[in-house]
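Catalogue entry: protein

Sequence with per-residue tokens
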Amino acid sequence: MHILDRFNYELEQQINGNLPKGHIYELGKPGEILRNAGIPDLPIELSADRLAYKASENYRRNHPFNLSDIKNLPEAINNPIAVFNSTKNDGAKIILTELKDKNGNNFVVVMRVKHKGKGRDNIEINDIRSIYPKNNRADLINILKSGKLTAWIDKEKASRFVSVQSTNLIGNGNKAETY
């Protein structure tokens, strides 16, 4: 089964409550774009437990979302709008995707690179630490315009993102919110 099909099938299993406890999603390896952004050519993984927590209303940052919103995640992270370096100087990468939640907020994926997976006999992986719809669009627009943290950018997608989001902010269609 293709990685994308397997991810979507397993995601549907999680939505329906039929995914085994402790499941780890295997999202394949980074494509050329992610490698060019500095992500090593190692398997990308996401804990189903972490995903459920990040999507829930109990998550401390309160970015609840429907699990179905991240259908096609492996494809979305490999074809992003942009990839940023973490401000924490920890080597993590922040991936701005074209996936959107029900409110039109783009999903951001935080990936810890070259991490030793839990109980994996020191096998190195790229570990998705967080995923959420980013409701503070003004922050993203400023980061994109400054280029300071940018590791890779699709200029056409970024221009379209900035244009649409700026129009929404001016028209009050999407209010910039902080968290």
User: Anything to note?
Assistant: Confidence is low (pLDDT under 50) at residues 171-179. The longest strand covers residues 106-116. Residues 3-135 form one domain. The chain has one domain: 3-135.
